[in-house]
Design goal:
The protein is mainly beta and 220 residues long. The chain is built from three helices and 15 strands. The protein has one domain (2-219): L,D-transpeptidase catalytic domain-like (Beta Barrel), CATH 2.40.440. Strand 2 (44-53) and strand 3 form a beta hairpin.
Length: 220
């Protein structure tokens, strides 16, 4: 056990310093996305992808220019406040999009009429994907979004598992990694379409990918 601890410490020391090296991630996670902003009150960040090699995070792609919520970052996001939550989160096991599957390795659902994201804090299915019959009003209200009605931001997207397991009513919902539309988001992280496609195609379910969002001070 002592020899193993010494070896682990040596590997940790040998890892080159980076924004990724300070982020705690489960041992089984072998892919990481960092979204690093200079300050909390900004709508811009740098998104970089990393892969774990012999215990160290090695840059895989980027940095890319990402957009954040219109009111910047927050460690205490609330529903509708226009901020992007800070922290480290898993990537959802299903990706969605209005376009055909762009070649992702995750389960993919092409959006169609009646596909919603429930953003009603009073709903028992708050912060989850729901399908209702096309043309039928959903049983939830609030700011719930008809995802099939948003082809520009949602040609394809990954779900950031913020406020899930457990879901806390009012803490915020529908946080995605999606395509840019020319301005800030209402809480998601967005990339240029070509860069988004490259990142989504790179992600692998078996690598248990994580996304870490925050300021340089928070992440490092």
């Amino acid at each position: 056990m002592l020899a193993f601890a010494v070896l682990t410490a040596a590997v940790a020391v040998a890892c080159p310093p980076s924004v990724a090296s300070a982020i705690e991630a489960p041992a089984g996670s072998r892919q990481l996305i960092t979204v690093e902003a200079k300050v909390e009150r900004t709508t811009f960040a740098q998104l970089t992808t990393w892969r774990r090699v012999h215990g160290c995070w090695v840059k895989a792609g980027g940095p890319y220019v990402a957009r954040l919520g219109k009111n910047g970052l927050s460690p205490n996001r609330r529903e509708g406040d226009g901020t992007t939550p800070t922290g480290s989160f898993a990537i959802g096991q299903t990706m969605y999009g209005n376009d055909p599957n762009p070649g992702v390795r995750f389960r993919y659902r092409r959006l169609r009429c009646g596909d919603w994201w429930d953003e009603d804090p009073t709903s028992p299915t708050y912060n989850s994907f729901r399908h209702v019959a096309c043309g039928t009003a959903p049983p939830f209200a609030g700011g719930s979004e008809g995802m099939w009605q948003q082809p520009r931001p949602y040609p394809f997207l990954a779900v950031v598992e913020y406020n899930m397991r457990p879901v806390v009513p009012g803490r915020g919902s529908g946080i995605f990694l999606h395509a840019q539309t020319g301005g800030p988001t209402i809480g998601c992280v967005s990339l240029r379409r070509t860069e988004l496609q490259a990142v989504l195609r790179w992600l692998r379910p078996a690598a248990a990918p994580r996304i870490a969002i925050g300021t340089s001070r928070q992440l490092r």
